[in-house]
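User: I've been trying to design a sequence by hand for this structure and keep getting stuck. Would you show me what you'd pick, starting by listing the structure so we're on the same page?

Assistant: Good idea, let's start from the same input. This is the structure you sent:
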């Protein structure tokens, strides 16, 4: 909106200045000659003088007229008054005023009475009067100024009208449920901020609708199994009086309730991960010490966890709580699918740092990489394992607004999955470039794209 206002003020001021200067320059230019009224007035004075000086029967009169006509565009002639027929009103006026101006297709002619000789001096010209009402120069230039100003503003406002119509059409389509509609954004647009914000809003609404659908499907699908088991367990308890069987059924009911509680907790955790509802508390974190402390707090596991730190201190700016959620989910995923070993390492260069989590499980097929980061989607290698398919979805969602992006590869050294969290590195520390080359060999598939 600020760009729109500034451009409008600029166009108006510039157009007023340029048009005003241009019209003033044109108005100040001298005209090519006297206008029609000035020429008629000059001919009137000339005719009065000539009618007085030529009012004689001098034999040299015709010679004077011949010489005059040879050098002037206005032609002189003398006719007898009797041969100058006029209607009675004009004849009376002519004799009274001794002057008459007539206009024909050939032009304007002026006639002067010569009372001594009772003749008429005729001055014929090629001048023509203006048919339309006379318009002053000031009026004409004022009209030109406003017409030019309106034309410039129309040229300026045409792209804005097009952009507003496009915004209106897209908004209408989006309101009708076509959630895929977006506005093509150009940085030269007057309403660039409005278009960008609309697209962001549309993305958020579409994401919320998709999440709602996913949550609805998950609740309706994943809760059915534990609910059915609870129902069967309660029926079995009602039918038996054996204390050992009752204890066994109670244990199963508790396990099913734990599964339901875990699912609901997972759903709520994912639903709360909304960028609009989260205010991250960014802190400077030294990853070598931080990752080591998180591994120590990870808890008991049957798998060996190997940590390979960076050869130099690595500083990043992130929210330790959400970064811990990402790392915790990656470690849980590696623990669930790994067989005997998990490796956590740090790779860095001057601009970025990557947390690499590898396991020796069966890995994730490349055809399923884009699918497994979606909520409640599990890869083919995860069948038979516990979980709801939410771990990687949570990691990916946090990464979209915390700038700690997740990428999935295969581990060439361990043979399982290789999860990479890429973040921006603070410039206040340095690390050797050979550290990147040494760590990048751990993950395949375009490792140069950190």
């Amino acid at each position: 909106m600020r760009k729109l206002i500034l451009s409008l003020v600029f166009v108006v001021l510039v157009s007023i200045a340029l048009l005003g200067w241009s019209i003033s320059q044109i108005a100040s230019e001298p005209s090519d000659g006297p206008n029609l009224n000035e020429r008629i007035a000059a001919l009137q004075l000339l005719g009065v003088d000539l009618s007085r000086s030529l009012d004689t029967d001098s034999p040299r009169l015709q010679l004077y007229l011949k010489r005059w006509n040879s050098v002037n565009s206005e032609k002189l002639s003398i006719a007898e008054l009797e041969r100058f027929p006029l209607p009675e009103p004009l004849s009376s006026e002519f004799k009274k005023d001794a002057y008459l101006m007539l206009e024909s297709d050939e032009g304007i002619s002026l006639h002067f009475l010569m009372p001594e000789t009772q003749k008429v001096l005729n001055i014929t010209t090629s001048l023509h009067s203006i048919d339309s009402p006379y318009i002053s120069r000031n009026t004409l230039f004022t009209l030109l100024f406003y017409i030019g100003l309106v034309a410039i503003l129309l040229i300026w406002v045409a792209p804005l009208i097009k952009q507003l119509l496009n915004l209106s059409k897209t908004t209408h389509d989006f309101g009708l449920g076509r959630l895929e509609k977006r506005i093509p954004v150009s940085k030269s647009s007057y309403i660039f901020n409005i278009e960008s914000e609309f697209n962001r809003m549309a993305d958020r609404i579409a994401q919320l609708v998709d999440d709602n659908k996913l949550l609805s499907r998950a609740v309706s699908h994943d809760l059915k199994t534990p609910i059915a088991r609870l129902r069967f367990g309660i029926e079995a308890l009602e039918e038996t009086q054996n204390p050992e069987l009752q204890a066994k059924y109670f244990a199963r009911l508790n396990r099913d309730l734990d599964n339901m509680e875990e699912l609901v907790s997972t759903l709520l955790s994912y639903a709360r991960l909304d960028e609009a509802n989260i205010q991250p508390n960014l802190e400077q974190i030294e990853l070598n010490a931080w990752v080591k402390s998180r591994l120590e707090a990870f808890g008991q596991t049957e798998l060996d966890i190997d940590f390979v730190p960076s050869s130099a201190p690595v500083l990043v700016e992130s929210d330790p709580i959400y970064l811990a959620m990402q790392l915790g989910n990656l470690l849980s995923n590696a623990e669930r699918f790994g067989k005997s070993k998990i490796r956590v390492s740090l790779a860095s260069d001057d601009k970025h740092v990557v947390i690499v989590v590898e396991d020796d499980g069966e890995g994730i097929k490349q055809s399923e990489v884009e699918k497994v980061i979606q909520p409640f989607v599990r890869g083919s290698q995860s069948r038979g394992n516990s979980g709801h398919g939410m771990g990687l979805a949570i990691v990916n969602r946090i990464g979209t607004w915390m700038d700690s992006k997740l990428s999935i590869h295969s581990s060439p050294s361990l043979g399982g999955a290789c999860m990479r969290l890429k973040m921006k590195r603070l410039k206040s520390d340095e690390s050797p470039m050979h550290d990147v080359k040494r760590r990048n060999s751990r993950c395949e598939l375009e490792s140069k794209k950190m």
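That's my pick for every position. To get oriented when you compare it with your attempt: The radius of gyration is 48 Å. The chain is about 50% helix and 15% strand.
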